[in-house]
Amino acid sequence: MENYFGDPYMMWHDGIDTKSVIRLKGEERTKAEGMLIGAMKSGSYWGAIGLRELRSEKAVPHLKEMLPQATEMLKIHVAIALCVIEESTEYVGNIIEVLENDSEYFRLEAALSLKHFPIPEVIDALFRAVIDPEYLVRYHVCDSILHIYGIEDSIDQFEDIFAHIGIEYDPESEASINLAIEHYETASKMLKELVESKGKVRALTFDF
Length: 208
Known about the structure:
Layout: H1 2-5, H2 8-14, H3 26-41, H4 45-54, H5 60-66, H6 72-86, H7 92-101, H8 104-113, H9 120-128, H10 135-148, H11 159-165, H12 174-198
């Protein structure tokens, strides 16, 4: 547990080495699976990530049991773990739900995660999210779309599109909000034209 999760402060500050579990074999791996399942059931999304890295088939029923009750970050990573272990996109809709309904921080995480699933359902959801009210979500949604289409540049390299997604608005003014939405919709249209003319949708690989 200490090898994977490390010091709580460093885990929060720097993240963890999620690949460390891959090196485990035999009894050590079996013990790690049990510990990570327990951590996931207690609400740790890092537990779900570890099970994903292990490609733990033993964890699948536990992940499926957890998914309906999971929220926010845990929901995202339980869904990803199931997709990766089963090599299926069946659970991607759960990540889209977070993108469309949760708070800014979790919408941002969902936007970043969806770039790994280059399927029509995800592409449509990301284009809808270009009009997200939060700048950072819009930014990373656009970057995920570029990634899906094999375009490695960040959205800020496309200044004409970036100018539209960077527009701020006064939340107290309906006119300001409506004007901003017009800019975001323009950005979405321009981005679609860009990726369809210069990009190609990546193959689905389940590699994280």
